[in-house]
Amino acid sequence: MNQRILTLRDALATHPPRIAYPEGTNPIILSAVRQLADWQAARPVLVADNPTAVKQAAADAGISLDDIEIMTVPHQHNTPPANTTGTPPLTPLTYAAQLLHNGTCDAMVAGIDHPTAAVLRAALKVVGLAPGVRYASSFFVMDMPHFAGGEGGLLIFADCGMNIAPDAAGLAAIAEASALSATRLGWQPRVALLSYSTLGSAGGQSVETIRHALAEVQAHQPELLIDGELQFDAALVPTIGHKKAPTSPVAGQANVLVFPDLNSGNIAYKLAEHLAGGHAYGPILQGFARPISDLSRGSSVDDVIGASLIVGSMAAE
């Protein structure tokens, strides 16, 4: 695990966040929360219909539940939903989202046993978007062990999991949300809007969309270090960035990469994982009122720990 990810662990130990986990019978979740509790980097809350099943799963895996809280989903007829009409029925997932909504917990890590649609539905219907936010999106923190740039070998890739073909306003919202996420992780964001073109080297409708998105972000946040359109190599490789975009404030040193659509973002993060030995933490949802991670159903213990440290750090901010 990247040292910068582990630095988040050390920072959280001074005031560990309460993180809700609605899949508490999963042995990968149990192993991860055990490690987080031992590090004192989080106060895990396992949300379950049946606490006995959680205890049995932990016993079967040889995992102690000391310092790990279990919260039982209340019966619907005894405890009506806290939100207004449209709140889905209480399940461990939706109840965990309620704990997030009402401030009982600071962040939520879910998805290892739920499809993305279910996690997003709980996030949208129960947690809700942050004030002033119109677009939800997602990002991965990519740990690239053979790459020295970005943020100590870490990069934010967005949006690799939600928005299929964002227009200029959507792309601008993704860029702004990703920059805020980077800031919450203690980074100074340097945002590259990626394309097959670098600052006019090619044309096309998608390039125009990126240019309009850039103008919108710069109007909202003129102090943000952002540029586009930039090709991938121009965004990350200093010599190429200097050659292709010598006046750019981010070329060759970007740490936040915003892809033009879901096809390119999703393909890119999987290429980085499987061909370049990268490690993807997330996806982390952004734009919501509270930090949420939507885990892949193939997540490892390290994946869960990394995602937990990221959302915990975002909650601390």
Mind explaining what this structure looks like?
This protein has 317 residues and is of the alpha/beta class. It has two domains: 3-128 and 288-316, 3-Layer(aba) Sandwich (Rossmann fold), CATH 3.40.50; 137-276, Isocitrate/Isopropylmalate dehydrogenase-like (Rossmann fold), CATH 3.40.50. The protein has helices at 3-12, 27-39, 51-61, 92-101, 116-127, 168-184, 205-220, 232-236, 238-244, 262-276, 301-316; strands at residues 18-21, 43-48, 69-72, 107-110, 137-143, 154-158, 190-194, 225-230, 256-258, 279-286, 292-294. The chain has an eleven-stranded mixed beta sheet with strand order 3-2-1-4-11-10-5-6-9-7-8, sandwiched between helices. Helix 1 (3-12) crosses helix 11 and helix 4 (92-101) runs parallel beside helix 5 (116-127). Residues 78-83 have low confidence and may be disordered.
Main traits of this protein?
single chain; alpha/beta; Rossmann fold; 2 domains; eleven-stranded mixed sheet; 11 strands; 42% helix; globular
Q: Order of strands side by side in the largest beta sheet?
A: 3-2-1-4-11-10-5-6-9-7-8
Order of H and E elements? HEHEHEHEHEEHEHEHHEHEEH
Average of the residue pLDDT scores = 92
Class from helix and strand fractions: alpha/beta
Number of strands: 11
Strand portion = 15-25%
Short description:
The chain is α/β, with parallel strands linked by helices and 317 residues long.
Architecture blueprint of SSEs:
Blueprint: H1 3-12, E1 18-21, H2 27-39, E2 43-48, H3 51-61, E3 69-72, H4 92-101, E4 107-110, H5 116-127, E5 137-143, E6 154-158, H6 168-184, E7 190-194, H7 205-220, E8 225-230, H8 232-236, H9 238-244, E9 256-258, H10 262-276, E10 279-286, E11 292-294, H11 301-316
Parallel strand pairs: 1-2, 1-4, 2-3, 4-11, 6-9, 7-8, 7-9
Antiparallel strand pairs: 5-6, 5-10, 10-11
